[in-house]
Amino acid sequence: MTSRIRLLEPHLINQIAAGEVIERPFSAIKELVENSIDAGATQIDVIVRDGGKSYISVSDNGCGMTEEELQLAVERHATSKLKDSNLFQISTLGFRGEALPSIGSVSRLHITSLYEGAQDAWTFSIEGGTKSPLKPAQRLSGTLIEVRDLFYATPARLKFLRATTTELQAIRESLDRLAMAHPQVGLSLKDDQRVIFNYRAQKNLMDRLQEIMGGEFMENSIPLDLERDGYVVKGYVSLPTYHRATANHQYLFVNQRPVKDRVLMGVIKAAYQDVLARDRHPLVALFLTLPPEAVDMNVHPAKTEVRFQDVQKVRSLMISAIRHGIHGESQRASSHTAQVAIAALRPPMLPLNQGKLHLAASHRPAFTPPSQSLVAPFEVPVYSHLSENESTYEETPTPQIQYGPLGQARAQLHSTYIISETPSGIVIVDQHAAHERLVYESLKAARMTQNVPRQMLLIPEVVELKEADCARLLTLKNDLGACGLGIEALGDQSLLVREIPAALGEINPKSLLQDLADELSELGEALSLQDRLDAVCSSMACHGSVRAGRRMQIEEMNALLRQMESTAYSAQCNHGRPTYVELKLSDVEKLFGRK
Ligand code: ADP
Ligand code: MG
Q1: Closest-lying ligand to the alpha carbon of 102?
Q2: Whose Cα sits closest to atom 13 in ligand 1?
Q3: Which pTM does this prediction carry?
């Protein structure tokens, strides 16, 4: 009897590999562009048709291939890149020798290349795995690779391709990532004749990021640069008040390779945990560089996953870098917030002249004051003593008090917003959001010194919760105690609350405990104890901040502003909402057509 086990033909092996390496047109393009980068190209031009489904070409000015190399390149596991056959010393983007044979097995692949310094170029093709003989060709430099009818040889895969626009979007995305990692390379993408982007070669990362992420990101982000024992993290992360609903704008790189790595994504989440709502995501472009042997790139054929030798070291480096960055800028609200506010304030879009005419001709004569009963009783503003007219105000010598960057409080509106004046603009503070952050930071600080002012409840409160929730809170009993929250077990499904942090004022212990239990269950074990306790303080601050809707005196408002100026992270509440917006006078002037 003949054996039923047989070796697969090389052609089939390649198609199987193609299933992993070349998932969609964007993955073929990614592999080809990576090859060009590995070949030392300084200019790479990509052209696609039908979202890469019918045609892809990648042209570079790299080192090219000799006649022999050209033929070898499409052989499986043929690579020029694995120095000393060491999988843990990888300094190139490719190393598996799989991309070209895979692409050649499922499409019509044509390669034309001129080896650096050689006289003649050569061309070679492979269609559905069948090779044709090498021929002389014309080419000025580098390599041109053309891929027609991707997956024509594997109809099952063809069916999974998406709409042209979707494929094109994915191509753009993946090329953007490569472009960020290699600013020194010029990279262009055309959809047939239409230029989609043309990134010129840049000397530094910042210029490339500006091109791709846009000026708004650069303006609202914080530069990072931290090194520890040969591990380096560099890049930009957004201010906590500048965030998105998805993590799509998180660009991560390890040793100049774009990666999608769960560990790193988790680290970013943890680093912002303190300053951002859980369903919002910061924008980041972070570049991690570590010794090649400290990271395994060979986790998946697509090479976008990595395995770190020392996850803890990576985690702590990244968290320190990001937190330090955020901390340094923690009192800066994003300019984006102010722009949104200004845009919302802009009058309806009438051409300026027309607007004026309209007012003069019809509105003014027809204007009647609203009936007395509709006007809310107007309290004399507390600041009325300041001045009747501007000139006396200007002549009045500025009081001795020094006002900080958040300016001098002038008024409170709707018992919620503090309006303050700075030399160059107007600041609007959301008193509730600001207060929430202040309570939070004070709780955190007090927790550190084991000295949280607390209030005993006159009658201890019995709170009923699910068994699992009770257990979850009780495992942290001592730590919660250190935060000022005294609880005790009382049966399987209830707890006794004896004391709460004084900063919280009057609160509902049941809803506080329920929120804490939910929070802890959601965070799971992902965070360190410290971080979990911070989350506890954050939840408590949220419960304790009832200041919206409370009238404040000018002195009290100024005190709040000064406290914000001296408190870390005061530009955003615990959920990442801004606590204040600053409108520049120049913008306000524009609103009124003064500039
Ligand atoms: P890998 O990149 O893992 O080595 P590939 O199948 O992608 O495997 O490419 C095989 C080999 O072909 C590469 O090692 C390289 O020597 C050569 N090659 C591919 N593309 C180019 C290019 N654009 N310029 C020069 N050499 C190339
Ligand atoms: Mg390759």
Answers
A1: 1
A2: 79
A3: 0.68
